[in-house]
Amino acid sequence: MNPTPQAVKRIVVVMASVVLSSPGLSQGRNLPKPTGPYAIALVTVGLIDRTRAEELTADPSDWREVVVQLWYPSRSRVGTRAYYIVDSASARDMYSEGTFQKLAATGVHAIRGAAPQSTRAFPLVLLSPGAGVSPSNYTAIGEDLASHGFVVAALAHPYESPVVRLHDGRLAESIKAKPEENSFDFAKRSVMRRAADLRFVLTYLADSASRIVPGLRIDARRAVVMGHSRGGVATLEACKRDNRFRACVSMDGGVMGGPYYDDSTGVGPRAPTMWLQALHRQPSDSMLATFRMSRAQWDSFDIRANHMLARARGGAWRVTISDTAHMAFTDLEFLLGDSARAKTALGALKTVREIVLKFVEAASRGATHEFYLDRSRGVLQHIPESKS
């Protein structure tokens, strides 16, 4: 049975007050310290999928390439500190000069290319960014997970991420929908490419992680996939098609009122799912009139989304973080906002890290049923798997 609308409650997470003590914007801000015991290292690598032609270029010999930013547990805290801006030349095409200078001055914690911890195999977390967002913009989450013993692979999807430098030096710039193209169809094709990218990177790293970082050991049997915005939708689409993932996490992703595409098969993600959302306030009557929509029609989107989540194998969790916005799942709200905005964003960012870590740790043990939030963070409501 699908849960009744009354049985499905939204989880509202109450954020704690945070004191901001970072330097001024002209000097850059330091990202919050990772909370785990491991030192962290970072490498970036281009991976070529020779089973897929690149459909977004005219060259028939061009293969799909995915650029991966890889955070992993390291043996050493000594070495050359990584930069927030991994590729300065391409980043200057993404940002204004002022924004570039602020981000380039950001303090991070990873060491570039340091030797990995090799005492055991670490579970893998794949991350698909939002449209127009760089993998670097999830450094706070990536570093924190790596400090707790996860290998985190954040994907730059060429021709979608703002500018991606490929292995041969070419710059793959973002491609927009043509005026005559249907924007929903364009977005769906993008989501499906991303889902295929995620599955490819899982396959590659499961077999060849030590080719990228000698000595790095990954336990791909405990892989989790997550994404933000369009990447969140791609995450659940990948999870619908691949049973290798232990769990999937969508950070404020959604399409047409639901967490993923509601196709005719009625299939949901093949793993326990968390839908982590910003607080999207109810529209006013005047806004609904502008949308040409009744209140009942608006509410039906929410009911439909919960029914879709109930299709997830192992059930789902829906968490709403109060006092936050869509981009608060990235570092950007904190790094680029004024002092008051940055204070709120830092609280949101730390809350997101805490919730994601708890869920991913439970998933890596095969124990998502143990995932909970304490009362200070809100009330957790599990959406059980539908048996119908």
The CATH C-level name is: Alpha Beta
From the spread of the alpha carbons, the general shape counts as globular
Span between N and C termini? 5 Å
Number of strands: 13
CATH architecture term: 3-Layer(aba) Sandwich
Would you spell out the secondary-structure blueprint of this structure?
Layout: E1 11-13, E2 39-53, E3 63-74, H1 88-94, H2 97-104, E4 111-112, E5 122-128, H3 139-147, E6 151-156, E7 163-165, E8 171-173, H4 183-212, E9 218-228, H5 230-241, E10 245-251, E11 273-278, H6 285-291, H7 295-309, E12 316-321, H8 332-336, H9 339-364, E13 382-383
Parallel strand pairs: 1-12, 2-4, 5-6, 5-9, 9-10, 10-11, 11-12
Antiparallel strand pairs: 2-3, 3-6, 7-8, 12-13
Helix pairs in contact: 3-9, 4-5
Keywords:
eleven-stranded mixed β-sheet; alpha/beta; single chain; globular; 21% strand; disordered N terminus; Rossmann fold; two-stranded antiparallel sheet
